[in-house]
Amino acid sequence: MSLPQSPYILYSDGNGNIFEDTSLYVVGRAGWDAFPVPDEDWIELPDGGNLYELPGRRGIGIDVKTGEMRLCDKGWAVAAFIPPAHTGLYLAAYETTQDDAPTLPLFCYTAAGWYDNKFYVPAVRIEDDIRQECAGYDDTKVATGAVELLKNYPHNRLVKHLMDNCCNTYHCPAARNFALGRWECPVPASPACNANCIGCISFQPEEETIVSTQDRLTFKPLPEEIVEFTVPHLLNAPYPIVSFGQGCEGEPLLMWETIRNSIFEIRRHTQNGSININTNGSKPDAVKALCEAGLNSIRVSLNSAQKHIYTKYYRPNNYEFEDIVESLKVVRSFGGWASINYFVFPGMTDTEAEYEALRKLIKESDLTMIQWRNFNIDPDWYLGHIGITETSEIMGIKQMMDLIHEEFPLVKFGYYNPPIERIRGEYESDFAH
């Protein structure tokens, strides 16, 4: 559905109230620049989306009468958080007008507007899997499930961490699904990391201006603790996945021996379901050992397929960009499913150079899937940290997706790790294409 016109800009009064300014059409941002958003790119803000005020920042819009771009001087700029399964096409366009404007917390900042009594965002639904839909969570059932798990595994430190912290404190969708006995079960395994990502959600140095959104795992789980709750999950949950590597931990490949031993033991009990690892892909030899034990899929996170941009963000210790490509290749050589967790940043992701680098990565690694994920980071802070001072020529996120799909029709697009049924081709839930 295409809107008959651009939505109006939104602003906040600084007290949690949001208004529309009908003298300005909202625009989107890519890189450092503001652009009009094509009318067909707007969708209604999906259920589970939120609006944020951006303190110290004024929104940029197009004057309804003159057609000129100008700032909205009525209040602070507003951005949207769009829920999982959706990929944003433009960031919120604003100018920082206060010297002491705080660095924005680690969320995504999609453009948002108001039209005909509804909020709109420039986004595409990339996946029809419903596993993290807001409407699918009954808080009472989640709480009951958490209590039940804690009762059933009274001495299991990992179950305690997943329920007390991830489920009940952070409201992590994966941990909540585990409490409900369904789908993807998170298995954090590593308190340490071998990257120093500038936007790390579980660890930020004290001198940094932002805080991590959650605390990192503080212990090394034993294989027995992992096996104790993952085997019942694989046996009983619908479309079950056991997933190592979560936002509340470091890099799981640093604990590869523990994970390998856990996989061996899990597979001694059941061949059900899929075993996945979310990782930075830094240790191809460890990935090989996990594949030999029975790993079904890997998801490697990256902000860019270009080595120099990747390295400035991840700041890796003792590994290089080439290692992550090798890890993807290893999983494919075992017939496994290889995804990238691709942080989408309009104006960076859709440059010509990035497009060419992504094509090269797909060909080199025989990639199975791209998970087009929204990048949770302050746009100015990110571009400043990686030293990008001007916007390159861009093609638009949607066009880039179309070009990639056209050239690589077998590469799946999505947002989540697939269950074994999808890996085996027993059902297809590819939404966007």
Topology (elements, then pairings):
Layout (H helix, E strand, L loop, with lengths): L7 E5 L5 E9 L1 E3 L2 E3 L6 E3 L5 E5 L2 E7 L5 E3 L4 E6 L4 E3 L2 E2 L1 E3 L16 E3 L2 E8 L13 H14 L4 H11 L5 H7 L4 E4 L35 H14 L4 E4 L11 H14 L4 E6 L4 H10 L3 E6 L4 H8 L6 H13 L3 E8 L7 H14 L3 E6 L4 H7 L11 H11 L4 E3 L5 H4 L10
Parallel strand pairs: 15-16, 16-17, 17-18, 18-19, 19-20, 20-21
Antiparallel strand pairs: 1-2, 1-9, 1-13, 2-7, 3-4, 3-11, 5-14, 6-9, 7-8, 7-12, 10-14, 13-14
- Coarse structural class: alpha/beta
- CATH level 1 class label of the largest domain: Alpha Beta
Q: Could you list the spans in which at least 5 consecutive residues all have pLDDT below 50?
A: none
Main beta sheet strand tally, sense and closure? 11 strands, antiparallel
Spatial gap, N to C terminus: 17 Å
Let me know the average pLDDT. 92
Count helical runs: 12
CATH superfamily of the largest domain: Aldolase class I
Report the helical percentage.
25-40%
What is the correct CATH architecture of the largest domain?
A: Alpha-Beta Barrel
